[in-house]
Design a protein that fits this description.
about 65% helix, 4 helices, mainly alpha
């Protein structure tokens, strides 16, 4: 019987984008909470919160490749459900935390 040498199974490298996207959404929720839970969220408010979250992520992990940050940002935006109009900051923060749990 012929022996076939095979290298040991190597785990496939996983992208850190899902966990980074979850961190972005969680940090954005914290930004919304800091702004006051009773204010109504607009798209501009949400963009500001997500931008601040990305800045925090890059500051906390300066060696993170920009492609991973870009991919994580795209995943985070894609995961946010539509229909933010009328939500307060507190409600939208809870929504973002729920989405972040699903992504991580």
């Amino acid at each position: 019987m012929e022996r076939i040498h095979r290298p040991p199974e190597q785990p496939t490298p996983t992208s850190s984008a899902p966990s980074c996207a979850a961190r972005i959404l969680t940090a954005a929720a914290a930004v919304l909470d800091r702004e006051g839970k009773a204010h109504n969220v607009t798209e501009a408010t949400l963009r500001r919160a997500v931008t601040a979250a990305v800045v925090d992520l890059v500051r906390s992990r300066p060696t993170l490749p920009s492609t991973v940050v870009s991919q994580a940002l795209r995943r985070a935006w894609a995961a946010i459900p539509p229909g933010i109009n009328g939500n307060t900051n507190g409600v939208q923060a809870r929504v973002l935390r729920g989405v972040a749990r699903r992504l991580s």
